[in-house]
Amino acid sequence: MRAGVFDSGVGGLTVVKSLIEKKIFKEIIYFGDTARVPYGVKDKNTIIRYSLEAVEFFKNFNIDILIAACNSVSAYAIEEMREVAPFKVVGVIEPGVKALQRKIDDKNAKILILGTKATISSKKYEKLLIKEGFNNLISIAPSLFVPIVEEGIFKGEILEVTMRHYFKNIENPKAVILGCTHFPLIKDEIQKYFKSAALIHSGEAIVEYIKSNYGYDKNFSKTDLKLFASENPENLKRVARLWLKG
Amino acid sequence: MRAGVFDSGVGGLTVVKSLIEKKIFKEIIYFGDTARVPYGVKDKNTIIRYSLEAVEFFKNFNIDILIAACNSVSAYAIEEMREVAPFKVVGVIEPGVKALQRKIDDKNAKILILGTKATISSKKYEKLLIKEGFNNLISIAPSLFVPIVEEGIFKGEILEVTMRHYFKNIENPKAVILGCTHFPLIKDEIQKYFKSAALIHSGEAIVEYIKSNYGYDKNFSKTDLKLFASENPENLKRVARLWLKG
Hints:
Order of helices and strands of chain A: EHEHEHHEHEHHEHHEHEHEH
Radius of gyration of chain A: 17 Å
CATH class of the largest domain in chain A: Alpha Beta
Largest interface: A-B, 21 and 21 residues
Distance between the termini of chain A: 24 Å
CATH topology of the largest domain in chain A: Rossmann fold
Strand order of the largest sheet of chain A: 4-3-1-2-9
Number of strands of chain A: 9
Largest sheet of chain A: 5 strands, parallel
Oligomer: homodimer
């Protein structure tokens, strides 16, 4: 199978990492809209417009399935993309909720949802979780996490002070949804802060979801990955070498 | 006179604030390209393309002069904008250098240039300062300052830790160029960090530059300001009410 992975920037490579490690697809075409990143602070109509342009891009590649790695795209544009795409389109929010359900039985458990302003405003995670019976939800948009990660800071004083700023009133969640592709890169620090919480990672969630719902390739040696960016493709390739190694 | 002020987002309102306080223009038309902010992490060709689109926007308003409040635009796109604009176009970098010259006589004085990645990579401030004889220059791109300011944080622990991160190897500059429209909003904190430094602010610099080079309106009571944004104009108006008061 040939899969497309669409993200607003380089962050979706955290999803690609899971797809490659778990050997799901023989081929992955990645497109990061790096000229217009970040999407998470943009409004709904802009996110939809940019996402439909991405569908046009992927029409050139005869893909079987398009994964919207970006939570902001997943929150707002999946239905609109499906209307015009000649391939399957899947976001990361529903898979994230399924992954949470596999880890947390207690419907009263405190669930902390972290996302961009766009994702949190959409209330998409909340709606799905409430539908499944969860009733103890906290949503916050720790907006500085994205630029901190983009600055190459994955631990240390700046991140600690910033976590305290956003998390100061939140006690002992049972699970934390890492609802932005950047957040898995600081998951060790988030885990240190919320020691007993189960962390939900879009990349791991989507692997399980695709295996259950769409099938996957077997008996191949290595995923062939092609990288495209709307700006500065060299930087995307540099980050890919850094994040996808090992 | 009717002036246009162009910025990548809301930050250019710090320049508008100076223009209004000093009563330079009867009318100001502001356009913030909030759908595509930030420019400071984008590459040269993208910044030029967006800036030329802004010139097209201002052609509808019969303005006398267009001020590029954004340092990244000033660093890369002024010549290209002048080629197609039927009005005068002025950036903030040359005015900033002139303002520095008025404050600092000693050519050996240590000058710290702060800007976005785009502005710093362009070396535009450095080239102009070297041409004027200054020889002790340090340039850095404290990228987290922009999102911190956009998060509404103007002082406190996060900002202090972040300043220490970027400034730790810099001792006692005689002047600091605030080479990004966001930085004037944290100028008090930067001044606390570098107690004896003269701070160079684009808004104040452009006022003097325009008065010397282009003339200005006299004998009017209040600047008429119109605000346009490529996305979420309500937020631009909200920030304008906050920043321009008093």
